[in-house]
Write a structure and sequence with these properties.
272 residues; alpha/beta; TIM Barrel; eight-stranded parallel sheet; two-stranded antiparallel ribbon; 10 strands; globular
């Protein structure tokens, strides 16, 4: 397994996203992923599955200290006391004394960012999390967050796949030593039918999804594909035995489109 190093954190380059996984399915997929060699699991308060993620981890038999676990605080818990209380609730559900990384799930302009980041840094000092970071932050918000945070931020988790150009956000993260963690890294399955990815895949005896994930990892990005199918779990992690050439990387990057974004809400920031 490769790792992305960022401000003291070592984040496994491939992880399991758990959005839309629930109940026994979630616990089973987490357990299977860990048995297959995954060491990075991503959840969030709003996913409603922190308890099942913890159950899956314990069922796997893999030691807790070998696994990098991320959760995310939802925007209605950004007031300082509320953030700490909600994070403690997350830890109760997970049945962990601490997580490895806590992120602010989306920007929230209704609570001063300095207050929220102060509370996040305090949670780290209390030992509730080893690292802190943000998610869905634009370049301008990254600059603000880095300037305001009392503790180093280690990542910005954003949508990133070949159809969405994130060069500006990647550059801002790199400038401040933040990792970029990619959610929806295989564009919710859209890459399966992509002819460019299929052609490159044939040259390497890999699937379009594997080519896509390899493209991200070679940019020093950590990717967290979500699947409920155990056979896909194996496929998504088998990307460390080949390398894409420079011209292949460029062909994949050229797939980006202004309409490539899949995740957008009314409360989303003004994207770069």
């Amino acid at each position: 397994m490769l790792f992305v190093e960022a401000n003291g954190a070592s984040i496994p380059a491939i992880g399991l996203g758990t959005w839309e996984l629930s109940d026994r399915t979630c616990a089973r997929v987490v357990e299977q992923a860990l048995r297959l060699g995954y060491r990075h699991i991503d959840t969030a308060q709003v996913y409603g599955n922190e308890r099942e993620v913890g159950d899956g981890l314990r069922a796997s038999g893999v030691r807790r200290d070998e696994i990098f676990v991320t959760t995310k605080v939802w925007t209605n818990h950004f007031a300082p006391h509320d953030l700490e209380r909600s994070l403690k609730e997350s830890l109760v559900k997970l049945r962990f004394p601490a997580v490895d990384l806590v992120l602010l799930h989306w920007p929230n302009s209704h609570v001063p960012l300095a207050e929220t980041l102060g509370a996040l840094a305090h949670a780290k000092k209390m030992g509730l999390t080893r690292h802190i970071g943000v998610s869905n932050f634009t370049v301008a918000l990254i600059e603000q967050a880095v300037a305001l945070s009392p503790e180093p931020l280690v990542c910005n988790q954003v949508e990133y796949h070949p159809y969405l150009d994130q060069a500006k956000v990647r550059a801002a993260c790199g400038q401040h030593g933040l990792a970029l963690v990619a959610y929806s890294p295989i564009a919710r399955g859209h890459v399966k039918a992509d002819q460019v990815l299929a052609e490159i895949g044939r040259a390497h005896h890999k699937t379009p999804a594997q080519i896509c994930l390899r493209w991200l990892v070679q940019q020093n990005v950590s990717a967290i594909p979500r699947t409920s199918r155990v056979e896909r779990l194996s496929e998504n992690i088998e990307i460390f035995d080949f390398e894409l050439a420079g011209d292949e990387m460029a062909r994949i990057a050229a797939l980006a489109s202004p309409k490539g974004r899949l995740t957008d809400f009314g409360f989303a920031p003004k994207w770069d």
